[in-house]
Write a structure and sequence with these properties.
Length: about 625
Amino acid sequence: MFDIKEELKKLPEKSGVYIMRDINDTVIYVGKAKILKNRVRQYFQNSSNNSPKVISMVKHIDRFEYIVTDSEIEALILENNLIKKYSPKYNIMLKDDKTYPYIKVTINEKFPKLFITRKHEKDGAKYFGPYTNSYAIKETVELIHKIWPLRRCMKKFPRDFNKERPCLNHHIGQCLAPCVKKIDEKSYNKMISSVIKFLNGNYNSIIKELENDMYNASENLEFEKAAEIRDKISAVKKLDQKQVIENMSMDDRDVIAFARAGSCALVQVFFIRGGKMTGREHFIVNDADGVTRSEFMTDFVKRFYGGTPFIPKEIVLQEEIHDCDLISNWLSDVKGHKVTITAPKKGEKHRLVELASKNAIIVLEQFGDQMEREERRTIGAVNEIKQKINVDFDISRIESYDISNTQGIQSVGSMVVFEKGKPKRSDYRKFKIKSVFGPDDYASIYEVITRRFLRYKKEISGEEKIKGFNKLPDIIFIDGGKGQIKVVKKALYDIGLNIPVCGMVKDDRHRTRGLIYDNNEILFDSHSEGFKLITRIQDEVHRFAIEYHRKLMEKNQIKSILDDIKGIGATRRKNLMKHFGSIEAIRKASFEEICNVESMDSKSAKAVKDFFSSNL
């Protein structure tokens, strides 16, 4: 038995990371501390000084653990890694986990090439970005290849010199064929130098170079070439006009501001590279209430820069953050250069923050009604269910299960996950029933629940690494009534877990009726958001099970029937099923229709027709 009061006395006066767990041993919060003893004890002292969010969290802490580190920076790094690993419900989590594209110039090799990548590696190449507008980055790369005919192949030099004839790009004037030495390295590198100037935003010098080339071509009476260069100049000027923010400093910097409405916050980030804004992005953060503006900004900076491959030289913030020097030192270590974090109150940088703040407010207002409706149908619906079934625990993660089979053949189980009222498809799982023969739904449910939560125990114990099973649900929704609930509870009891279970029941017309919880049937208004969410969960878990079952049945059909036709191999079987969609459609198809299927000839079509004619 974990005694919190006694364990608090044992906390060391050292820096480190603390991990809060609930009664099911699920990690609900991760934090770092300069002095563990002081920081952790604060949670369990005078609760009136804590925020509503902390008060709610403390109610669910069953035990805590901690990891001592040599320094506060190590604690910061470890905190970030553990939050990524566990996704605790009381830590601020970003809703946007996309990776941004970069333009990569391979100056670390002979005759460099240029392309778009989403990986930022320390490989000696030169990277530009990140870019948030995928169309804009493609437009830029296309313009570069139009102005400077760089190679696009994957050849390695000098290994691949003169091994093959020049490719099509050379013949259409889009490559100068360094592979057969039609351009020397010095001339090629001069092009690369111009490309890098262009990507750094030095458009004026590029335009001057192109204008000189245009005038020279005109003087030599090469009017067609001059016209082509004129069009290139026009394209560069057009791109230059899109870069709207100019700065005296040419450093890379990010500008961050946010706006809040209720429990939702919208963070706006401006990406400024080489003194020009290359893009912007917004991030939506739910459960943002109950923390100060400074705490919110601190958590955002740690989460955002703990997950992005590019860190600018300067980060300009709307609010001052806690541990500013510590975070700055951490990011400087990661980048390999000094990273400055500022929260300006006046001047040019403050104007940029104001602009980001206005944009955050505009976007929040623009999506305000939509976000409010979305919150009603998700978090609001979950809260309605919580009130109707009368429970005092938070419901964030719902797991739902269903069984599907045809008279006991190819029995499968499905698991779908809803977090804060939204489907989390990356956590969906399928189970092929292994231990049950015949149409026994109860035994199948027992097997699925047992397999799912034994995998959870193995993963958290470190015995196995099974992706997607390291979290526990707050509640389980099973498609069925009291019988199914009883089986699920028995499986959980046998494993040693205690998770609330609801049954989703249907009426005589197979429509959602309500929930069964704690042996009571709870009905919902059919127009309520809670009822609609239950219906969505029930339909989704049923759909997911049916799809998997049909897929297995189809494979079984193909194997048991089409495999018996002589002359019909794997390719023809696949083409027949792709063309007709089912065995029954193949059976009914005419000889001519079968002949029209890809890879089928008259002999194989006759074999198919003869087979089904003799097996009616």
